[in-house]
Amino acid sequence: MADTRKLTMVFTLDNGDDFKYNLADPKDELTKSEVDVVMQKMIDTQAIIKDNHKATAIKEAYITTTTQDVLA
Asked: Could you tell me which InterPro entries the record lists for this protein (predicted)?
């Protein structure tokens, strides 16, 4: 049995759509304030652009944990 974790950062684009950016294996002690700082920096530096639409706001961030049970 193995657990994997994924951080999903959700941005709002200038056309109102959402954009999800995923990172594998976030550190265990990661805080919302740390993630918010990084997300805001990504917005400020225009690091997120999809189909010519820029990220303009932080919508949410969450960690998903998945357990994989290998069948014998």
From this structure: DUF2922 (IPR021321)
**Sheet containing strand 2-13, strands side by side:** 18-24, 2-13, 53-68, 49-50
pTM, two decimals, is: 0.90
- Count H helices and E strands in the chain, helices first: 1, 4
- Number of other residues whose CB lies within 10 A of the CB of residue 39: 22
Angle among Cα 3, 69, 26 to the nearest 5 degrees reads 10
Which residues have a Cβ under 8 Å from the Cβ of 3 and sit 6 or more positions away?
Answer: 65, 66, 67, 68
> What would you measure as the largest C-alpha separation in the chain, in angstroms?
49
